[in-house]
Design goal:
Layout: E1 18-23, H1 30-43, E2 47-52, H2 58-68, H3 76-98, E3 104-109, H4 112-122, H5 127-133, E4 145-150, H6 153-163, H7 175-191, E5 196-200, H8 205-216
Parallel strand pairs: 1-3, 1-4, 2-3, 4-5
Helix pairs in contact: 1-8, 2-3, 4-5, 4-7
The chain binds P1-(5'-adenosyl)P5-(5'-thymidyl)pentaphosphate.
């Protein structure tokens, strides 16, 4: 990979503010863990903002609907630009202003690593294309820490089935897509070793929570 592509990336600068993201395939348990973490952080008097991607803003929620309820296959670049459009708006409207205060924590349910894994690896646009599209402000903002909840294809299918909802645009993909996606996600901690922590998320929600809390202790002051 061209290392110059990593140079424009930065993390939020307000001392004491913290930007966190959760990543993983469908059913990996992101929403479950985020909810517990939000409760904990509020109990220690942090200002917490939980957001999801795509979405999180009025404009972003409209884009979420356009993508996840699309009845026609979208071109990977069309897909990708919709996610980036939602992200740029969310950063500008919500994330950056919130992080200006020192005791604030933003938790994002999916962020740039989803675009790398889904559009970069699974759809085939490639890592460098995705990084190139994130070179400019505000898209060049990286989280301080990212928890990648790692499960395999069978576990994802079991959890999707037990939830029983109708399948959305990505959930309806076949195993071949998921295997590329999983391989893409598993490559990410090597590319961003200081930021991404891979957690085996096939265990109980309680055991995953313990691993996250143990890691987070070193970051929260
Ligand atoms: N996307 C998104 C892109 O392609 N590119 C991008 O750039 C971005 C930002 C968004 C879609 O958009 C794509 C990726 C996605 O396909 P979404 O609905 O926001 O879709 O995300 P999903 O991952 O589909 O959300 P899920 O709700 O399916 O997954 P979660 O949040 O990881 O899982 P969660 O916590 O809801 O749990 C799922 C089920 O498993 C159970 C829960 O109770 C629930 O029933 N569960 C466990 N069961 C056993 N053991 C555990 N440890 C469990 N943890 C949770």
């Amino acid at each position: 990979m061209n290392q110059n592509l990593l140079k424009p990336f930065r993390t939020p600068e307000t001392p004491g503010s913290f930007f966190l993201s959760f990543e993983g395939i469908e059913g990996s348990g992101k929403t479950t863990q985020i909810s517990d973490l939000e409760t904990f952080l509020k109990s220690i008097n942090k200002r917490v903002l939980v957001l999801r991607e795509p979405g999180g803003s009025t404009f972003g929620e409209k884009l979420r609907e356009a993508i996840l309820e699309s009845k026609v296959p979208l071109h990977p670049l069309a897909e990708c630009h919709l996610f980036l459009s939602s992200r740029a708006q969310l950063l500008n409207e919500k994330i950056l202003p919130f992080l200006l205060r020192p005791d604030s924590v933003v938790i994002l349910d999916r962020y740039i690593d989803s675009t790398i894994a889904y559009q970069g690896f699974a759809r085939g646009l490639g890592l460098e294309t995705i990084l190139t599209l994130h070179q400019h402000n505000p898209l060049n903002l990286l989280p301080h820490r990212t928890y990648f909840l790692d499960i395999d294809f069978a576990t994802s299918m079991d959890r999707q089935k037990s939830r029983g909802n109708a399948k959305d645009y990505f959930e309806a993909e076949q195993e071949e897509f998921y295997q590329k996606l999983i391989a893409g996600y598993r490559a990410l901690p090597e590319l961003f070793p200081d930021r991404i922590l891979k957690i085996d998320a096939s265990g109980t929600a309680e055991s995953i929570k313990t691993q996250i809390m143990n890691d987070l202790k070193t970051y929260l002051k």
